[in-house]
């Protein structure tokens, strides 16, 4: 009996110690539709908000969520209204800016933000989360662990935390933002290779592996490849290429995806690391010592969104209200290009429906028909182009 009581006491003690050690551990989910890292955050000790964690973001709450919990804005003095939005698109929305006086907690850790934005976050971002938060840029007392092996975020005290021994430890090269420099050797399927030693902005809100913006010097290397996957994105497109890569001259990254954006947007850096790169590691953000730890894990699973559609062509509305084709994706499987649609064509109607009356929301379903008959005007002459839709075309990001 004494041995049994002692064993029970030891189990209870170990359980208590484990709970004490993990009191700042919060488990997250990744929704495949919006691919945000979402976890519960406590506001004012009594309100739970499911917020997206985005290193490239700020503290944002959905306006409807705030209307349900009016005490949040009651405690946060109004400052101004401004146009705001994602840097990935030119589409903005009106937000209210407040001083962030609410008590914000992850586990037992209090977070401090200088301001809070409220707008129709869920509608704008097409998400079910209640808002977004990030690592406060002035946080030098905590070390943030993003564990993709067991899907949790844990905040440690920076004073006594040590990086795991099997980590790649990389210094942050910016005093304010999470930017690191990585050496990468990339090998394409056709045998072509390219070596990178670039500074990358870490953006957990971006689902991609690695993204090259329109000023990246390596774009010509990828643009000449004919097997890119073209995907619709915020009214335009991006392309991705699957490669093998080596990190730090010895760590293999199989089936790495490089995403290229060769049109201007609001992103103010040329190279980014996103969630599907980070998910190959447990990631440690040491803000006090300005360094990031990357601890390799065995089981990497890519998060994909199966609803993303392939990109075929885009149109531009003229001052007269006409719609002209301004871009056609140049790849073998683009059946619009094969059918003969060209840049400069004015689209008048599709299957007898005036093109200007087909909303963006309707186009996704409208273009799933077996056959699409385009009435166009080319160089002043009316033409009809018939497109046979490939129902077996693989969709998804």
- What share of the residues lie within helices? 10-25%
Output mean pLDDT. 90
What's the end-to-end separation, in Å?
60 Å
Structural class, judged by helices and strands? mainly beta
- The CATH level-2 architecture of the largest domain is identified as Beta Barrel
Named CATH topology of the largest domain: Cathepsin D, subunit A, domain 1
**General form:** globular
Rg of Cα set: 25 Å
The H-level CATH homologous superfamily of the largest domain, spelled out, is Acid Proteases
CATH class of the largest domain: Mainly Beta
Tally of domains: 3
Number of strands: 29
Report low-confidence residues grouped into runs of 5 or more: 6-20
Q: Determine the number of helices (DSSP H or I, runs of at least 4 residues).
A: 8
- Beta-strand fraction estimate: 35-45%
Biggest β-sheet description = 10 strands, mixed
Structure, described:
The chain is 14% helix and 41% strand. A hairpin with a 3-residue loop joins strand 3 (37-43) and strand 4 (47-53). Mean pLDDT is 90; it is low at 6-20. With 397 residues, it is mainly beta. Strands 2, 3, 4, 5, 6, 7, 8, 9, 10 and 11 form a ten-stranded mixed beta sheet that branches. Strands 1-13-12-22-23-14 form a six-stranded antiparallel beta sheet, with no helix packed on it. A six-stranded mixed barrel has the order 15-16-21-17-20-19. The chain has three domains: 25-134, Cathepsin D, subunit A, domain 1 (Beta Barrel); 143-296, Cathepsin D, subunit A, domain 1 (Beta Barrel), CATH 2.40.70.10; 313-388, Pdz3 Domain, CATH 2.30.42.10. The protein starts with a helix and ends in a 9-residue tail after the last strand.
